[in-house]
Design brief:
The chain folds into two domains: 61 residues; 90 residues, no CATH class. The protein is α+β, with helices and mostly antiparallel strands and 174 residues long. The radius of gyration is 36 Å and the shape is elongated. The strands form two sheets. Strands 2-1-5-6 form a four-stranded antiparallel beta sheet, with no helix packed on it. Strands 3-4 form a two-stranded antiparallel sheet. Helix content is 35%, strand content 35%. Bound molecules: zinc ion.
Length: 174
């Protein structure tokens, strides 16, 4: 073997060795970084999924309120079979209004309609925190519905009364 070849092999060896060593170092440094990044991404994904899942679970559990079956207690069991209007009458109600968008008004008061004094149900609460609030006397239509429900799991049947009070905008024209 000529010294040139020897030198060449040594040079090759050094270069190759150096390159592979450098490669190993790069790999060794980069690999945990990749793993860490992957872990971070996974954690982020899990966190997001967890939050979204939690939020969905919260929303679902909120929407599930009032849908329980009185027999078996399962949620989202309530199915409307039919509804019928039991009573519908016109009342004048006081509606509390407030400048805050958060506040909820309440309808209360009495009405004298065709001689007799009917008491409208005083329902709802006012949430106002020192904001400008005022009361308005508005005509309302109070409708009582009888709702027929059934459970989609155990086929239990029950009824519930629902009262809806809506502002009557047509009454002015009468
Ligand atoms: Zn049921």
């Amino acid at each position: 073997m000529s010294p040139e070849v020897k030198t060449g092999i040594v040079a090759f060896g050094i270069t190759a060795g150096g390159a592979s060593l450098l490669g190993f170092i790069v790999l060794g440094v980069a690999a945990p970084k990749i793993a860490l990044a992957t872990l971070a991404i996974l954690l982020c994904v899990l966190f997001v999924l967890g939050s979204v899942g939690g939020l969905i679970a919260l929303i679902v559990s909120i929407t599930g309120i009032g849908t329980e079956c009185p027999e078996c207690g399962k949620k989202w069991a309530k199915v409307i079979v039919r509804s019928k209007i039991v009573e519908q009458k016109k009342c004048y109600g006081l509606v509390s209004r407030s400048a805050y968008s958060r506040s909820s008004g309440s309808i209360s008061g009495t009405t004298s309609h065709s001689g007799s004094v009917d008491h409208c149900s005083i329902s709802g609460t006012t949430h106002s925190s020192g904001s400008t609030s005022w009361e308005e006397r508005v005509p309302v239509i109070r409708t009582t519905y009888l709702m027929y429900y059934k459970c989609k799991y155990c086929y239990a049947k029950w009824t519930e009364e629902k009262v809806k009070e809506v502002e009557d905008f047509d009454i002015e024209r009468e």
